[in-house]
Design brief:
Main location: membrane
Number of helices: 3
Subcellular location: Membrane
InterPro entries: PGG_dom
Oligomer: single chain
Radius of gyration: 21 Å
Keywords: ANK repeat, Membrane, Repeat, Transmembrane, Transmembrane helix
Number of strands: 0
Organism: Gossypium lobatum
Order of helices and strands: HHH
Distance between the termini: 38 Å
Structural class: mainly alpha
């Protein structure tokens, strides 16, 4: 196996847009799929936050993870 770092070749070169090979429609479709996946993950994290939500008491409906402010801000 060739170590691309030692040869000076970049690992992402095969993934770059090639005007003579790639069609703009295909690139647009790939970007739409990636944007949809990112939006889905973001929406899911907002609807169902990690750690769940408090079920009863004064904090009912708030994210349990929000109780630890440092960890919540990292999230």
């Amino acid at each position: 196996m060739v170590n691309r770092l030692s040869t000076g070749k970049s690992w992402y070169k095969p993934f770059q847009y090639k005007e003579d090979v790639d069609k703009p429609g295909h690139v647009r479709n790939i970007l739409l799929v990636v944007a949809t996946l990112i939006a889905s993950v973001t929406f899911q994290a907002g609807v169902n936050p990690p750690g769940g939500v408090w079920q009863d008491g004064v904090r009912a409906g708030r994210a349990i993870y929000a109780s630890n402010s440092a960890a919540y801000y990292v999230f």
